[in-house]
Amino acid sequence: MAGIRVYSTPEVKQAPRAAGTLRYNPQDPTRGFTAALGETAQFMQEEIHKANVARVRGDLNTLQEEKLRLLEEASQAQGEAAVKPDAQGRTLADRILAGLDAKAQALRGGLANPDQQERFEAQARSLRLELEGQVRRHVAGQAEGLARANFAGGLAIQEKEAQEGIRGGDFERAGLALSRARQIAGEEAEHRGYSGETAAAHAMEALTPLHATTLKALVEGGQVELAGKYLERNAPEMTPQVVEAMQAKIKAGALDRRVETAVDGVWSAHGPKNDREPANLDQLRGKLKETLGDDPAALKLAMASLKERASERDYSIRQRESAVYGGLWKRVLAGESLKALKASPEYRDGLRGSRLNVYST
What we know:
The chain is mainly alpha-helical and 361 residues long. The chain contains 13 helices and no strands.
């Protein structure tokens, strides 16, 4: 059957007061009201602080945007433009920071109370320090790049000086260039803080191109023996790979010189003596074998040089004959007799007249 719910009688009991609630005190009836006012004042102060934070954040955003713009402007200054002061003696950092300071000063005029001012100043100083460090790092990088370019440019000038000295036969000029190059390499090592083995390795890297250029100029100028002595003296200042390459170049240069000397001698002694005498390559080859001995590589180079000389000689002869024939035919067309032409020095000494004989009837 359905039950009947029974309710107990309500009771009033004592319990601790919940935090933040008001309680009437007969001895001090305004105490609860004062506490409420204090809590309201604290709440209002917190809201004002939040508004200040948001207000200052807007100005700081504006200041940081200006910082980014100024940093981009600073990065556009390259080389000496970044390193040298302007006409007023201001460095790049001075000029850039002055721009940020001006923007910060303009923004300060809109700050309404000490809380905003204090918060703005603290973070504005932080942004200024960031910008100063970033600009100074950029300037330091540009100064280092400029220094390296100056050292590299000095070495390149000495390399050219040495090369021109060798080509002109002025070995003293080349020697002075090498001395200056060593000085520049030492200055750069000191600039980078190198010493001992590190400085020696840097000198090798810096001087190797100059030595290689000098050796090439010596070999190409026929100074093969001098190139060998130069390499022997300066190999410690060159990388092993370049030393090996220069040794091969000197060896090849010595072979070329030996071959050309042999070809000059054989051609002079046994080559054709005038335009009508043909070049007997078989005979010349035999003479080269006698001179060069059993050296297939040298003989191959010598025959190539000999054939080139013979080919150049034949071309020169054809050119001269063509010029003479052209002049003679002009005289024929002008009405001069063939008998008179055959008596001319050009016909008698330079030609056999076979082309003209076709029309001699």
